[in-house]
Write a structure and sequence with these properties.
Blueprint: E1 7-12, E2 20-24, E3 32-35, H1 42-55, E4 60-64, H2 83-92, E5 105-109, E6 116-117, H3 122-134, H4 138-154, H5 161-173, H6 175-182, H7 187-202, E7 230-234, H8 242-259, E8 271-276, H9 279-282, H10 287-299, E9 305-311, H11 319-322, E10 327-330, H12 338-349, H13 359-365, E11 370-374, E12 386-390, H14 402-410, H15 427-464, H16 484-497, H17 499-515
Parallel strand pairs: 3-9, 3-10, 4-7, 4-8, 5-6, 5-7, 8-9
Antiparallel strand pairs: 1-2, 1-12, 10-11, 11-12
Helix pairs in contact: 3-4, 3-8, 4-5, 4-7, 5-7, 5-15, 12-13, 16-17
């Protein structure tokens, strides 16, 4: 076995090399770094560390960028071209119980082709990571935050990209009302976000969002022998969209941070997370995102999770994060330019010096399968830099056949759980239902208005063709002259309605009242 109860054997050497280099399990949650130029052995180091953690009963999550790590599921072969060099290396570093064996593996793939589908919801991803994923401006990120807030208040679940697209349409339609509460919502910003979502959908991001969403407990399994399951994310196609790759892994790390309880400093990690091609996480990243990564790296160790960044150059990792990586395996760095030489010097300065050799020279001279290592000791202090021959892997070196991968996927403990996507009632469906109801109500109102107008027109048409009513009172011919009596009566009435008439009436009525 690679573990001696409380440690993982990483390598050793002969003359001029460290006798033995072990990664202590109780210090494994203090994070780590695996760095080195292309072709110097980073993949093998990643493979043997995953084997060691699995043997110790620690689940592992790693991304397979080049398609090589699927070999972890099968034992190495004596017919492999590196069989004899591996045997010699094992003898040189005194690795007595070296043997070939495979490991329990779960295959995952966002696109659902080389593993079980991996999904999350738009709400779980959140506006910050989505803004990073789509490279939004501050103004556009603000509009996206408003859309998320409005969705919460309106009871509209955001599960997939259709939901987010529909919510943005609703936000634009109600921009005047929402702007009074949350600030300006420019139509141009809404349009820019919609275009970014279209690009994301074209890159395959639509398959990432939806249900059933990934349950973190499925990444923290052990097999019947107590070995930790190694979850391998197929990332060869995913790497064609680097921002999607980096954002997804950062989301996964953030979910682990938020979901897991505090455990302090356990005897061994609950989970180890390898972040390959880590430079993609920090390239052109805004300060808010780097601060979030730093916060997660600083605090997640108390939840029993170890994070190991795998990259070509330590300079790819910000100092605020690099300072928290206590366990380090530094493969060769090539210094062909002044910048390379500066990066090499900087990398050497991060190690505790060894009086036996110059660290910068050692980093430049170590060959393939060799490294300068430094691991935390029992007290948590970094060990001195040591030149180390990395032990050979026990599992197969290189990828497995497609048929073997398919068989392992079919017999997986989560087979069938995530295979079929579920599109349940959410923001897209509810907003569509609201729009249909509004359209139906508008149609009813329009029909009622048309009916009332038709009735009014019919009533008018009916009156147009109806004969006029005749009066029964005899009318005098306009040419017939009025009689003398009628003329006198008109004069009297006119006088009575005038001022004099009113006085006479008041006098008569007053007399009557006085008589009483």
């Amino acid at each position: 076995m690679m573990t001696a109860g409380d440690r993982i054997f990483v390598g050793g050497g002969g003359a001029g090399y460290a006798v033995a280099q072990d990664l202590l399990l109780r210090a494994a949650n203090r994070h780590g770094l695996v760095a080195g130029a292309t072709g110097t052995g980073k993949t093998v180091t990643l493979q043997i560390l995953a084997e060691g953690f699995s043997d110790a009963g620690v689940p592992v999550i790693l991304s397979d960028v080049k398609g090589d790590l699927s070999g972890l599921s099968e034992p190495g072969s004596p017919t492999h071209k590196l069989h004899e060099p591996f045997q010699k290396r094992a003898a040189t570093i005194c690795y007595a119980d070296y043997a070939y064996r495979g490991y329990p593996v779960l295959f995952w793939d966002i696109f659902g082709q080389q593993g079980h589908p991996v999904r999350t919801t738009v709400s779980e991803m959140g506006p910050l990571l989505l803004s990073r994923l789509m490279d939004l401006t501050d103004a556009q990120e603000g509009v996206l935050n408003i859309a998320f807030r409005a969705a919460d208040e309106e009871g509209l679940p955001l599960l997939d990209l259709k939901d987010l697209q529909a919510m943005l349409v609703w936000t634009g339609e109600n921009a005047k009302t929402l702007s009074l509460r949350y600030g300006n919502i420019a139509p141009a910003s809404v349009g820019a976000i919609q275009r970014a979502l279209l690009v994301l959908e074209t890159q395959g991001g639509a398959q990432l969002f939806g249900e059933p969403a990934l349950e973190l407990s499925d990444l923290m399994r052990t097999d019947t022998d107590g070995r930790g399951m190694i979850s391998i994310l197929a990332a060869d196609r995913l790497m064609q969209s680097p921002r999607l790759y980096a954002t997804f892994l950062l989301w996964l790390l953030s979910e682990l941070f938020e979901a897991l309880p505090e455990v302090g400093d356990p005897d061994k990690p609950r989970l180890v997370f390898f972040f390959d091609e880590a430079h993609l996480l920090f390239d052109d990243a805004p300060k808010a995102l780097v601060d979030k990564v730093e916060q997660v790296a600083r605090l997640i160790r108390s939840k029993g999770v170890g994070v190991y960044f795998v990259t070509q150059n330590p300079a790819d990792v910000p100092d605020s994060v690099l300072g928290q990586l206590g366990n380090r395996v530094q493969h060769a760095l090539r210094a062909f330019t002044p910048k390379d030489q500066k990066d090499l010097t900087r990398a050497a300065q991060t190690y505790r010096p060894n009086p036996a050799f110059d660290t910068a020279t050692a980093i430049r001279e170590v060959g393939t399968g060799e490294a300068v290592t430094s691991f935390l000791d029992a007290k948590g202090a970094p060990g001195v830099a040591e030149r180390t021959l990395v032990r050979p892997p026990s599992s197969r070196l290189g990828p497995i056949e497609a048929a073997a991968r398919a068989a392992r996927i079919a017999s997986s403990p989560v087979a069938g759980k995530y295979d079929t996507a579920v599109d349940r009632d959410s923001a897209h469906e509810r907003l569509a239902a609201r729009a249909a109801e509004a359209a139906e109500a508008a149609a009813r109102a329009e029909a009622e208005t048309a009916r009332a107008a038709a009735e009014e027109q019919e009533f008018r048409n009916t009156r147009r063709y109806q004969p006029p009513e005749r009066s029964t009172t005899p009318r005098r011919s306009p040419r017939e002259p009025a009689s003398m009596t009628e003329t006198v009566a008109k004069v009297v009435v006119k006088e009575l309605t005038g001022t004099t008439g009113r006085r006479i009436v008041r006098g008569i009525l007053g007399s009557l009242f006085k008589a009483r």
